[in-house]
Amino acid sequence: MSARKPLRAGLIGLGSMGRNHARVLNSLEGVELVAVADPVAGADSAPAGVPVVRTVDELVAKGIDYAVVACP
Q: Does any domain span residue 1?
C-alpha cells in the first residue's frame, strides 16, 4: 500500500484566528501548509518556512488542494 500524498492547504488571513489556524494546519499529519495569503501581514507572521503572499490568486497558483478562510 502506498502512502498518501499530503493535502496541500492554503490559508487566507493572518489575524489572531488566522495565526491559530496556521499553527494547527502546520501541525496536522497529512497536511502541508503551502502558503498564506494576506495583503498586510509580514513574512514573520506565518510559521517558519511558510511563505506569505499578497493575493488569493498567488495562493491558488501555489497548487493548493483547499484553503481555510480566516478573515472577516
A: no
